[in-house]
Amino acid sequence: MSPNPDRGNFYRPSMFGGFQFFPPVIKWLLITNAVAFFILSYVGSMTLNGYLLGNLLTQYFALLPYDYGFLPWQLVTYQFMHADFWHLFYNMFGLWMFGMEVEHVWGSKRFLAFYLTCGIVAGVTQLVLSPILEQGSVVTSYGQVIPTVGASGAVYGVLVAFAMMFPDRYIFIYFLLPIKAKYLVFGMIILGIMSVGNHTAIANLAHLGGAAAGYAYVLILARRYPFQRLIEQLGWLINKERFKRREPQHEETVEAKVYDIGEQRPKTEQELYQIKIDEILDKIGRGGYQSLTEDEKKILFEASKKLN
């Protein structure tokens, strides 16, 4: 569906309609990452009994390979650690720019679950595949272990979610060159695939794992699965056979009863509201978020606030 020409097709977040520049989860993710960076930068430079605290923090909270000190909670904590200021800045800018509208549509609880899930899947992908496909992001040529840090995997998941929900939105690269979100994200993923195996410390596999998790999450949320039509037809056939097996049990003719439709219990306002929400969600599943009208977007936004 083509965008409304009156509204334009450029990504310019608005403060109208309750839209916030810093929705709750993104705000706290920005704060948490900034605080973690401060601790690593300043407290990490201190020493305790001649032992650098930064090395201790990295040992327990960065994502280390399986054979080099991996701990389960590192799949979460590594997402809040960054190598330097610009690493932090670009990740948080991407999270804010693309994530705030996704959070407004989904609600804060669902967005937080999505974000952490993408980050965890990105970490697992790095752990499992990097020793095979990308040794350069695990150990240096001198045998030194390279810990994985940063929110890039989770942010890639957010980028994919945004591109699937708003595929025709224009993003300005360096604030000059407009490109549709779907092409920008697709290009970034292709570049990441081509970069796998390069002798750099960039965890390309983590980026791709986060992107794959974001893609799968949105499909599941929209009730779109591989072979979905085949599965639905199979389910219909099974139910049809069950219905046929039950038919002989009702061979006796019974007197038909007529009910006055007007005697049915009228639906409450809450039930009618829920029916409207279900219709909107089904419409997103069929045509994406961009197929909604402005009124439907407002209804969905108000419903998401009630869930938070």
Distance between the termini: 30 Å
Mean pLDDT: 78
List the strand order in the largest sheet. Answer: 1-2
Count the DSSP helices: 11
Radius of gyration, whole Å: 25 Å
What is the helical fraction, as a range of percent? 55-70%
Main β-sheet: number of strands, strand sense, barrel status?
2 strands, antiparallel
Ordered list of secondary-structure elements with their pairings:
Blueprint: H1 24-42, E1 47-48, E2 51-52, H2 53-61, H3 74-77, H4 85-106, H5 108-133, H6 152-165, E3 170-173, E4 177-180, H7 181-195, H8 204-221, H9 228-246, H10 269-287, H11 294-307
Structure overview:
This protein is mainly α. It has eleven helices and four strands; from the N terminus they run αββαααααββααααα. It has helices at residues 24-42, 53-61, 74-77, 85-106, 108-133, 152-165, 181-195, 204-221, 228-246, 269-287, 294-307, and strands at 47-48, 51-52, 170-173, 177-180. The strands form two sheets. The chain has a two-stranded antiparallel sheet. Strands 3-4 form a two-stranded antiparallel ribbon.
Characteristics of this structure?
elongated; mainly alpha; 308 residues; two-stranded antiparallel ribbon
TL;DR of this structure?
This protein is mainly alpha-helical.
